[in-house]
């Protein structure tokens, strides 16, 4: 009667503005119930339904008796219902309801009802074209639901009346398809036709629903929602629908494609792409619904799931060399991994450059560089066109082990030197690598255009570091074998660690050169290492004294002659030759004799006599 004023009064009485609304509120339940009853309305004008209509059924006076017309009428009536909800200001007050075990925005459930009407119309059109297939699937669906078919009515009458359950047809179509594939010869026309037909029905039903959703976005939108809406899982992305598409993906690729001729292959693979488009579209809608700070954790986990499913479904297209079809989906759904693999397999660098521009705002270049890095394709990473050098340099800032190569390639030798020097300074895991990095840094700085003064300073710094590494490089081979060490696999050793190796008992052939190296290494000990350098020096000298058999010298009158070939004396002679002031460098005799590091010698009078004599000759003469 178009009595909007009377309708508003009734609405105000039933659902007052001050009523507290929440999930599954009376308003939401009432609105969705009417919507569902409308799309599931009985065709009371059809005399065959006279005895099958429940007494409590809603009657929306559906005057058509032709099923397709009934569906069109329901679609029009549903649109009028939505308009009515807006006119009486109920639409903006809608919250959420329970659907398929989860909360869903009521407005989106209303949209779902409209979408199912669109899908039902698509199915009914196929019922005219493929009556045997659709009727068989409908019968399977009704059997699963244990729905009786009233006398005088057909399975189609019963099934198409209940539009809210239209999605149950999908698994039934697959069930019929599997049976035909099993019972039919591969050579028969029916074998391939059943797959093509099932693909078309599922594809066109889903596309009809998705297009209906997209065309009515503004109609079902609430301008200022009062609360954050729950996650949205479209019915076209429900577990049942996703399972159907995944199963069909497997049937096509594992059963049909390998045995099909080229024409059938072309048809089913294009149909599969359309099904995958629907599958991925559902994930995108779901992701958009949780792309908010309040749902960040859920968004992250769902995005990981989406990426995994996307890869699983698209990768087989690459393996079948269906490059154009794979590219179409990968571009639409931003599967950069598939796009990079595609370009690599087809050696299409121009396409890769196009993607860098096309997806610049989504950091495609960074993804590509990281992909090259992970796959060990460093040559391709570093041979990017000049146009990409800026982005590559930015990416390589976090990958210094490669950025110096790009710097050299770009002829920026000073930057290459700084990077290599930094890498060498921080390298502790491999001695051989640190040595190589230092050598490369020296070559880079020599090739740079810095001033001669700065060049000399930097070269001196590098030489000093190389001198330190030389102590590790010249460790005795016998010692390394004894310790089961390999220079190519050894970590970078600190000065105290090298000292311990040079003076340890396992260095059986140690001579004055080894102990002199140990003393030289004291200069490389940093204060931050918290090492007692004087104690370490004392320990080195004690270990050197212990290397000689002092008991064989007992009884000799001349202590200098008796000890002239000892390692200790040869060390003193080397120190003097280098201009070292022994009186300042060596510890006191009493400190040596009292050290526990001296072992049994500290109690040997003859040894003490020889030691003091050598101190008098070599140390105290400096003070004379």
TrEMBL record:
Keyword hit for Acyltransferase: no
Record Pfam families: Nucleoporin_C (PF03177)
Gene3D superfamilies in alphabetical order: 1.20.58.1380, 1.25.40.700
PANTHER family: NUCLEAR PORE COMPLEX PROTEIN NUP133
Keywords annotated in UniProt: mRNA transport, Nuclear pore complex, Nucleus, Protein transport, Translocation, Transport
Molecular function (Gene Ontology), one example: structural constituent of nuclear pore
Highest taxon listed in the record's lineage: Eukaryota
One Gene Ontology cellular component annotation held by this UniProt entry: nuclear pore outer ring
Organism annotation: Python bivittatus (Burmese python)
Protein's cellular compartments: Nucleus, Nuclear pore complex
One of the GO BP terms on file: protein import into nucleus
Protein name: Nuclear pore complex protein Nup133-like
Domain Nucleoporin Nup133/Nup155-like C-terminal: 287-526
